[in-house]
Amino acid sequence: MAIKNYLRERFFPHMWCPGCGHGIVLNNLLRAVEGLGLSKNEIVMVSGIGCSARISGYVDFHTLHTIHGRALAFATGVKLSLPELNVIVPMGDGDALAIGGNHFIHAARRNIDITAIVMNNRIYGMTGGQYSPLSGTGILATTAPWSNIDRSFDVVELAIAAGASFVARTTTYHAQQITDLVRQAILHEGFSVVEILSQCPTHFGRKNKEGGAVEMLNRYKQVTTPIGSKKKQENPDLIERGIFVQEERPEYCSEYDRIMEMAMKG
Ligand SMILES: Cc1ncc(C[n+]2csc(CCOP(=O)(O)OP(=O)(O)O)c2C)c(N)n1
Ligand code: SF4
């Protein structure tokens, strides 16, 4: 099946700005789904609010466009009631880790079989460029016109510490790696987190003088390196890409079934 068949073309043209990284994520996510040979009916996409969250409107799966920060709570309910379906949750850094931070750590802790995709552009794109918990110090935003003093944290380290059993990172420059990581995340039984650095040229790029989409994409090439590379040893500031954790651990829905069986036996 061509990836075009997974799209709701009636909702095009899409709402993203020219050069936004979120379209690259959509394209490569669909390639992952196509590679797995999944039918539309086997997938539920649940999203919150944000430019990133708008992905759910463009895919012809079962979709739920919910409220800001709460996508993982809705997704948990969907997965528990229909565990045979693949549940995918695309979120922005604000959606996943500011207002949604609590849901994120507890979904990871439970190891529920959901694929969480964090589209990290280090800013609130949809609402006009406010800083997010992932902006980092020194960043300019509409809410930090003289530079942000809040420190950021590492999504990968947070996900690992909270108990996610599949944790990976890539960028929109590394489009084929998005397909590969999302494919493996969907196949993984447990809570999977794929962080994708995704450019927002309109707000982050413009405010922080990072140039347009091409310059921002090139920057992802320059500031990242594969996990454990020689380059990382020489330059510890580089951001690593690849799979950090991939472990089999008891999954929440299976454990729930086991407890129910015990309870029924008395
Ligand atoms: C409960 C609630 N609080 C705040 C908002 C306003 N709001 C909408 S999207 C958004 C942040 C978007 O940033 P992010 O999640 O990082 O996604 P992006 O738009 O950058 O892709 C905010 C604060 C809202 N819709 N609902
Ligand atoms: S505001 Fe930023 S995140 Fe939103 S569509 Fe435009 S470029 Fe993308």
Shape: globular
SSE string, helix = H, strand = E?
A: HEHEHEHHEEEHEHEHHEHEH
- Determine the mean pLDDT: 97
Number of helices: 11
Q: Enumerate the spans where pLDDT stays under 50 for 5 or more consecutive residues.
A: none
Given helix and strand content, the structural type is alpha/beta
Rg calculated over all Cα atoms: 18 Å
Biggest pleated sheet: 8 strands, mixed
- Percent in helix: 25-40%
Measured distance between first and last alpha carbons: 48 Å
List keywords for this structure.
binds iron/sulfur cluster, 266 residues, 11 helices, 19% strand, single chain, alpha/beta, 10 strands, 8-stranded mixed β-sheet, binds thiamine diphosphate, globular
Explain what you see.
The chain contains 11 helices and 10 strands. The protein has 266 residues and is an alpha/beta fold. The strands form 2 sheets. It has an 8-stranded mixed sheet, with helices on both faces. The longest helix has 14 residues, at 22-35. Thiamine diphosphate binds at residues 49-52, 68, 92-95, 99, 119, 121, 123-127, 132, 200.
